[in-house]
Amino acid sequence: RYVWYMHWLYCTGDKPLEKSIGKMFYAWSCAVFAAIGGLTFGYDIGAINGVKDMIGFRQTFNLSYADGNNSTSCEVDLEASSTLVLGLIVSVLSIGAIPGVLLVGVLMDIAGRKTSIIIGAVAYTVGSVLQTGAIYLWMLYLGRFITGFGMGIIVTTVPVYIAELSPKKLRGGFVSIMGVNVMGGILLGFIVNLGAIRVNFGWRISLSVTVPIGLILSIGMLFLPESPRWLLKKRRNTRAEEVLTRVYGAENTKTVQQVLLEIQSSIPAKNSFVNVLREFLEWNVFYRVLVGMALQVMNRFSGQIVILYYSVTIFCSIGLPYYSSVILGVMNIIGTGLSVYTIDKLGRKPLLLLGTLGMFGSITLAGTLLLVFGVEDGGSQAVGYV
């Protein structure tokens, strides 16, 4: 390490970057603020998890119980048609996210990462207002669709923005902040529901929190810089250098120049569709994209997303109190926080393997217990705690 420091000082005359990392307040603040985008996704998971089981919500949209009872107990079954509607209410947000995700690639290249996040945040806010004030089912559907559209843009663009703005040595930790905010949003949703469930219009309180989240993100992003990579692609080299100087510090001018050259060399001279397709079909690129897609798809099919969206229903059906979901949210935060701290030390793959094995074991145990002991008559509380 000492030799490395001496070599750095001799060759560049700059202050060693490792000693500057702790002073990169500007880079940290940009990453932390942009990662508020993670709250948009996480909070909706936590909020709708409890909102769909609130008696006021079910009464507003005429979700009828099988026995005609309007009890607040989650042990009372809904009619089949109401169950279908409830599932659609939850999933229409993901349906809305599909066009947002499909369009965001073109949007990021044309308008930039920063502007794309602002557009997504505005759409998210508009949809949030609509679903919060919904008095008819179609208004709720439309509001959640628009919210999902904005969320699809946000959750796709924010990691790209943070990665392109972050110093290479801290990139993993910076991008992981997004994950912390997703889990923090889930926990926040659980906590807000815990208080809102006590009043008949509590479901509107829970959904209304999404409005200030969207407003803060859309307005705050106006004061953040654009991605230096996008600026270089648009030949705005001076502005890109200014951004990188603020990220790395004015004392690291040689480092800034080196990063500028690295980014410029990685940008193709002609970004035509044929060139992009040719690069995509190269095995080393195609293999990485395939692995990334597979990880995302398998993550969604692992079952953890079902637990996050329906934990209140699952816990209630096996005799556990409502606040059990808050415990789930706390554990999510702890696990994500550990990954942020260790990802640049241990690497991505070991953490991925550890998390996958942990999910496999816990979900297998939960599924087996539910299958063997069932959920009739409130289930077994002892089994529920296991």
Task: Summarize the structure in words.
- With 386 residues, this protein is mostly helical.
- It is 77% helix and 0% strand.
- The chain is built from 20 helices and no strands.
- Helix 4 (37-51) runs antiparallel to helix 10 and helix 8 runs antiparallel to helix 9.
- It is globular and about 65 Å long.
Briefly characterize the structure:
By secondary structure, this protein is mainly alpha-helical.
Q: Enumerate the spans where pLDDT stays under 50 for 5 or more consecutive residues.
A: 1-22, 66-73
Query: Sheet with the most strands?
Result: none
- Counting DSSP E segments of at least 2 residues, the number of strands comes to 0
* Total helical elements: 20
Cα-atom radius of gyration: 23 Å
Tell me which oligomeric state these chains represent. single chain
How much of the sequence is in beta strands? under 5%
Helix percent reads over 70%
Structural class computed from helices and strand pairing: mainly alpha
Cα end-to-end separation: 48 Å
Shape: globular
Along the chain, the helix and strand elements come as: HHHHHHHHHHHHHHHHHHHH
Average pLDDT, rounded to a whole number, is 80
